Amino acid sequence: MMLDTAVDFMQVVDWSRAQFAMTAIYHWLFVPLTLGLGFIIAFMETAYYRTGDEFWKRTTKFWMRLFGINFAIGVATGIILEFEFGTNWSNYSHFVGDIFGAPLAVEGIMAFFMESTFIAVMFFGWNKVSKGFHLTATWLTAIGANLSALWILVANGWMQYPVGMTFNLETARNEMTSFWDVLLSPVALNKFFHTVTSAYVLAAVFVVGVSAWFLLKKREQLMARKSMIIASVFGLVSACAAAFSGDRSGVVIAEVQPMKLAAMEALYDGEESAGLTVFGVLKPAEERTGNDEAFYFRFEIPKLLSLMSYRQADAYVAGINDLVNGNPNQGLMSAQEKMDRGRVAIEQLARYRQAKKENDAATMKEVAALFSPDTPQGREFLKNYFRYFGYGYLSSPQDIVPNVSLVFYSFRVMVAAGVFFLFLFAMNLWLLWKRREERYRPWLYVLLWSIPLAYLASQAGWIVAEVGRQPWTIQDLLPTVAAVSRIDSTSVMVTFFIFVALFTTLLIAELMIMTKQIQIGPKNE
Amino acid sequence: MAQGNIFVRVYRFYRDGFRSMTVGKTLWALILLKLFIMFAILRLFFFPDHLARFDNDVQRGEYVLEQLTNLKP
User: Fold this and answer.
1) A251 lies in the same domain as A268
2) What is the pLDDT along chain A (525 residues), one digit of tens a residue?
3) Of A302, A330, A358, at which residue does a domain stop?
4) Do A211 and A99 fall within a single domain?
């Protein structure tokens, strides 16, 4: 009976994780195109505003139609994630307290006023409001969508690097002590810039790819060429910015999530002057006990990982084994020691709860002092014990290791695609400048088939970010096993398949409507 | 430009906008169907708020505290 309960509980954890991952992946199929295409449309309409040329109005309206389809199908798919927080992840939802609530509330208000209001002007306002007002509405729709993303990514950034809060023993919730620490944390800022710039790249690839289709069909060639120029410039600048913010993310991850970095590189034994693996094929998980046993083969650039992570070519980069077993020479505590400390923090929490039940004011006061950042014993306890609170729920030190293969290969897909897109936009601009675009039909097919690659790269980026930080819902504080609700696993399984059906239907609807509208092309007024 | 009260003008703006939609009508049908499935079916029958059965934050806190302190690794 006990075993059945334990098995069912682990199924709840696994199915809840699968459901959340599936919902987030589907949601992210719609979001990046909205983020980037909004700006591309704004550039095109700006050209119309400045020149008064009806060609730009017609072009803008065509891409705006595709933007509208994507926006309409994707809108509110993110709300499902909030349903899941309340049902499947109730401990987590309560534990994060107002930290998550504040950015999401700001997001809701901004999204409503900026996107929902100005998007109506954008679609209904042609010939009804002035050209300047319409252009302003288009820009504000694009900016509003990106500001919405900011608040969501700030909330996500806090989960990866929880700062600016204190734990309230009485309510068992984290309370925000500094909004600015949450908003301006290096993880949140890097996450925002890297995510939105990569979304711009995806949108630029989409515009370039669809334009290539028109050139292949010898239709709307002027529109296709001009759209390609705008998208290629925007894409090239965005790809450079994504590379820069990705590089900065590496530095931040090395500092706050060293296990994620070790998993991204499949680095088992930490080393000085660590090399960056450009490509390699991993051995099965059970054979990967050290660096020498990790790969069948790999191509490595010496010292580059140390340089990119710590800005020093000879810096020490911690490996998976160092983080699991500890490495006193490098000042790394073992996972077992962290688990022991986490259990001390949980025991103190249990003491407080028991004392509260028994109205034992003295014990309550004693424990409250430990959780207070304003007392000396509190500062010591928070720094050395509560900091490892989540480790107390782990059953084995190995639990802190994420799925290395998935993270390792996803990271390489993301980076390889990013480098490829830099080349793609640069090459495309060169061909456009030389007016050779239409002569190279294979190149047009490359552009067209780069669209699914952009989506694959974007999803791979999120897999690195989220799978790489497992088992945590909140880094070091709350693992998935403690964050999940005590609910029946069957209901989670059922809703998982309902969502698969719902989201797949939406995706098919989007693809059908989108391809039909692309085939129709721009309309004459 | 339409004349009259600002609210009337805004109403006409939206009314005319919706009337002139082509592909938008299909999209609105999809949006409404999607929202109905999400809020009237999934939210009501499959996604109850697990902590909504408690009256206040203190009770919710006690429940979560119990969960967090009784979970054995």
Assistant:
1) no
2) 555 666 677 788 999 999 999 999 999 999 999 999 999 999 999 999 999 999 999 999 999 999 999 988 887 788 888 888 888 899 998 888 778 777 777 777 777 677 778 888 998 888 889 999 999 999 999 998 898 899 889 999 999 999 999 998 888 889 889 989 999 999 999 999 999 999 999 999 999 999 999 999 999 999 999 999 999 999 999 999 999 999 999 999 999 999 999 999 999 999 999 999 999 999 999 999 888 889 999 999 999 999 999 999 999 999 999 999 999 999 999 999 999 999 999 999 999 999 999 999 999 999 999 999 999 999 999 999 999 999 999 999 999 999 999 999 999 999 999 999 999 999 999 999 987 777 789 999 999 999 999 999 999 999 999 999 999 999 999 999 999 988 888 888 888 898 899 889 988 988 899 999 999 999 877
3) A330
4) yes
Q: How far is CA A93 from CA A168, A172, A206, A380, B68, in A?
A: 14, 11, 36, 27, 13
What's the angle, vertex CA A228, arms to CA A225 and CA A232, rounded to 5?
145
Is the CB of residue B32 less than 8 Å away from at least one CB of chain A? no
Domain boundary among A296, A330, A364: A330
Within a domain: residue A524?
no
A373 lies in the same domain as A448: no
How many structural domains is chain A composed of?
3
Q: Determine whether the interchain pair B42/A125 forms a contact, defined as Cβ–Cβ distance below 8 Å.
A: no
Domain extent, residue A448, equals: 2-257+402-519
Q: Which of B38, B46, B65 sits opposite A76 (nearest CB)?
A: B38
ipTM of the prediction: 0.81
Burial per residue of A93-114, b for 16 or more beta-carbon CB atoms within 10 angstroms, e otherwise: bbbbbebbebbbebbeebbeeb
**Maximum distance among all Cα pairs of chain A, rounded to whole angstroms:** 84
CB-CB under 8 Å, A506 with B61: no
* Tokens found for residue A307: 């340089």
Contact B69 A91 (CB under 8 A): no
Q: Which of A87, A128, A495 sits opposite B50 (nearest CB)?
A: A87
CA distance B5 to chain A (A): 16
A 83-122 residues with CB < 8 A to B:
83-84, 86-88, 90-91, 93-95, 120
Kindly state whether residues A131 and A204 are assigned to the same domain.
yes
Is A393 at the interface with chain B, CB within 8 A? yes
**Among candidates A33, A32, A54, which has minimal Cα distance to A44?**
A54
Q: Is B50 on the interface with A (CB under 8 A)?
A: yes
Closest chain A residue to B17 measured between Cα atoms? A124
**A37 in the same domain as A164:** yes
Same domain, A122 and A162: yes
* Residue recorded with tokens 């304003």: A374
